[in-house]
Design a protein that fits this description.
The chain is of the alpha+beta class. About 35% of the residues lie in helices and about 25% in strands.
Length: about 240
């Protein structure tokens, strides 16, 4: 498993944005250009590019050979590869990506002061009660939310699987578990990452072998990488 992250601090200049947009599929580019906010465009663009970079480096395919499909719940996957699984997430200025040979889910959330009453609609009774007892409820809310979202994305069913149908349970040995109908699910593992003090990030998969920290890129890393791919096409 590998995890990648990128933080964009400002709006891309027109030249850089146009070049990076040229590296995704025509269909993806058309969807991105329909976004009203430049932040949404950049988040979607960088997420796509992180996956493409990983595929080119790990599977040895060319960029124009890469195409993505989605399952019945909307989770993207590589239809031309059986043992390459990926998942992406973005929030605020962070975009993250996880790859593995097994199904995987990743989520990142920016901590903000929201109406905590919405937890009644999305959290189990046990989770909601623990939230009310927390000394830092906003921090705890987004800790739970990122963990629950990473699990939903790991199983690949999206929000068709209700968030309140299971509970996140923190054991005394710091292990994070999923509880369904008072039973702990086996072969489900979590890891949390501190990429930024105002964000919560979590990964969920079927094994405990997860990296200690993500590989963090910047925009110039992506520009240099895809510029090299363009040059290689000419050789």
């Amino acid at each position: 498993m590998e995890i990648f992250a990128i933080n964009f601090f400002d709006r891309l200049d027109d030249f850089t944005c146009k070049f990076l947009l040229s590296q995704v599929s025509n269909a993806k580019r058309e969807r991105l250009l329909k976004f009203y906010n430049w932040e949404d465009l950049q988040r979607g663009l960088l997420a796509d590019l992180l996956v493409r970079k990983a595929l080119i480096e790990k599977v040895n395919v060319s960029n124009n050979e890469i195409h993505f499909s989605v399952n019945e719940y909307g989770k993207p996957y590589c239809s031309f590869l059986k043992n390459f699984h990926f998942n992406v997430s973005h929030s605020g200025s962070w975009v993250v990506c996880a790859i593995d040979s097994n199904p995987i889910g990743i989520d990142i959330e920016r901590i903000s002061q929201i109406d905590l009453d919405i937890s009644k609609n999305y959290f189990s009774k046990k989770e909601h009660e623990n939230l009310l007892l927390s000394n830092n409820p906003f921090d705890y809310f987004f800790t739970l939310w990122s963990l629950k979202e990473s699990y939903i994305k790991f199983i690949g069913k999206g929000l068709s699987h209700p968030l309140d149908s299971f509970s996140i349970v923190f054991s005394n040995n710091s292990k994070i578990n999923i509880e369904v109908n008072a039973k702990i699910l086996e072969n489900t593992f979590f890891k949390q990452y501190d990429v930024d003090k105002v964000y919560k990030m979590a990964v969920c998969c079927s094994h405990p072998d997860m990296p200690e920290k993500p590989v963090v890129y910047n925009i110039s890393d992506l520009v240099d990488f895809f510029s090299l791919q363009e040059k290689l096409k000419l050789t």
